[in-house]
Amino acid sequence: MAPIISIKDLTKTYASGTFALDAVDLDISKGEIIALLGPNGAGKTTLIGAVCGMVKITSGTITVDGFDVVKEPRKARAQIGLVPQEIALDIFETVWNSVKMTRGLFGYKPDDAYLEELLKSLSLWDKKDAKNMALSGGMKRRVMIAKALSHEPKILFLDEPTAGVDVALRRDMWDVVRKLRDRGVTIILTTHYIEEAEEMADRIGVINAGKILLVEDTATLMKSFGRKTLKLSLADPLSTIPDALSDYDLHLSEDGKTLTYAYDTRAARTGITRMIADLSAAGVSVRDLESHQSSLEDVFLTLLEEKA
């Protein structure tokens, strides 16, 4: 199946010669959630702007559901809903009128039944007659999503969708995004909350200095680049780590009751078996073991360091 978004050799340079995007290649499949991670200034928002036709590209091609964004901008843009970082709403307008007006701006005929279903799916139906100024930050963010979906696009861009939203509302937003994916909407999100990408995304793309460093399935990425930490609870506290264990990267807790051993899951051997034997030989008795998989944040930082 052809990708719903295909980006080939995309470059954006400024008059100063600075590369905002540098030979970016990226294919996005229909119905997937892909998260774009990168530090500030990495090129995430520029990439979204290019796909949405708001940033003039220097070279390369972008097709959206088969439409070239340069040659057929209106047809390409009609396939896309965009929720920008900043909340931009007419504060004196009602939720219903805001969504209805946006649908009309895309040239679509009124469809109150669809808009009612949309607002209900976003838990906004009971707020339909409320003015935007009266809504909480989380509700305003939902109205932005409703506006972006008002013309029934196949693709939704979410640029920092939970910025400034508390933890409870952030999880509500995650549920909304999953429901949209279940309806077949392709979702591309940028986020600074790495746990958000780890929780929701089918694939993760890491971008830095305008270059795509890697695009990988979330689970595969975690498995390939993950590190694990083994915590060993000791039967008897230690004052120092025995010299016989100096070859291992062990860290002793302040209370002397826990040893921590970090190891790379990519290594042919973890060294755990030999370490446990050497602990026993040194007279160190282990009461309990607990392993911890590294977070996506650890993976992300590792990637940036490796590609620096």
Structure write-up:
Helix content is 32%, strand content 28%. It has 308 residues and is an alpha/beta fold. The protein has 2 domains: 5-223, P-loop containing nucleotide triphosphate hydrolases (Rossmann fold, 3-Layer(aba) Sandwich), CATH 3.40.50; 226-307, Alpha-Beta Plaits. A 6-stranded mixed β-sheet has the order 6-7-8-3-9-10, sandwiched between helices. Strands 2-1-4-5 form a 4-stranded antiparallel β-sheet. β7 (155-159), α6 (167-182) and β8 (186-190) form a beta-alpha-beta unit. α3 runs parallel beside α5 (137-149). The protein is elongated and about 80 Å long. The two termini are 35 Å apart. The mean pLDDT is 86.
- Gyration radius, to the nearest Å? 24 Å
Strand order of the largest sheet: 6-7-8-3-9-10
Number of domains: 2
Largest beta-sheet details = 6 strands, mixed
Beta fraction? 25-35%
| CATH hierarchy, class of the largest domain | Alpha Beta
CATH topology of the largest domain: Rossmann fold
N-to-C SSE string, H for helix and E for strand: EEEHEEHEHHHEHEHEEHEEEHEH
Task: Count the beta strands.
Answer: 14
Q: How many separate helices?
A: 10
Question: Considering the protein shown, what is the CATH homologous superfamily of the largest domain?
Answer: P-loop containing nucleotide triphosphate hydrolases
Query: What is the residue-mean pLDDT, rounded to a whole number?
Result: 86
